[in-house]
Amino acid sequence: MNRSNKETKEPSLAFGGQAVMEGVMIRSKNHLVICVRQPNAKIIVKTDTLHSLSENYKFLKIPFLRGLLALFETLYGGIKGIYFSANAAFSEDDQEEEILSSKEIALVVAFSVGLSILLFSVVPYFLTSLSFEGGIIFNIVEGGVRLSFLLVYLVIVSAIGDFKRIFQYHGAEHAAINAYEAGVELNVENAKKFSRFHSRCGTSFLLIITVISILFFSLISSPDYLVRLSYRILLIPVISAVSYEMLRLSDRYKDSRIVKALVAPGLLLQRLTTRQPDDQMIEVAIKAVKEVESLEKTSE
Known about the structure:
This protein is of the alpha+beta class. It has helices spanning 65-88, 102-129, 136-158, 161-182, 188-191, 202-219, 225-234, 236-252, 257-273, 279-299, and strands spanning 16-20, 23-27, 31-37, 43-49.
């Protein structure tokens, strides 16, 4: 049953999430919960208490610096969640095991970042330089090539059977969070009424990065080929930090018509990274949201 409009209240907790293999990972300020549907239909739950570096180093909460920290911690936790879910999704028991050590996860994160820089920064720059020498047209074309790479990558990945299910869980995660943020009672029937798209999604973040990079590289230029290439690599943290703040700002003013128009392309891109989930997937996502909400309230 839905709550009446008068009874519906905005939740005080902000959650982020990620789809994993046969499950959903939900992250709050202090906790991380992974819920995975096992072959026996049981939902296994893994919880972790988060210890952000910003707790010990207050300067990391400064705008822009907090974005860099959030991105690294999200990537680190996401990879850890994927490896846990890969093990749990094919196991019939509830035993948890250390799949990767902290050092091994750090290496995977470093490799992933390096591959992303090569594929979405260096290669687009090289291909664009074959036809253009510089200037704003160069930056726009390069941004278009980078975005094309992203679209082709997503189209190819979405055609793979296992990834299609992950994208369905991605849709379930968004539906559950949207239902939670709307303040309605969390159940499958209610969550099914909500969109599989969300303005804070990392897919939208990737599109913001592309636009911000075009602006940055148009303002900071050089006639030297290698210097311009170095900008593409050295400024990645800066562009990511600015993009993170833009994503936060868009969520804060998500009801504004101007913001809705600006985030529309990102929501459109989510048509590639999300699929309509089934009831069992939504059930997993709801359980993850409820678990992390309970943990947060208990720790208050």
